[in-house]
Amino acid sequence: KLPWYQRIIGSVIIIVCGLCGGYMTYSSGKALVTDNSGNPNFVHCPAKYNSVVFTNQTYYGN
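^ thats the sequence. predicted structure below, dont judge the formating
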């Protein structure tokens, strides 16, 4: 059986780590869902492919 002070310390560590992880997840993912620019910049493909949706080959019914 653990002493009461070790339970409190362990609980505080778990809560702090959970809050830090939640904050980092929220702050990192916020840009993914709030970016609503109408003209995205695709740096690794030519401009003619900016509007092409890439799907599985079976979608086009070969």
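Residues 12 and 18 are 10 Å apart (CA to CA).
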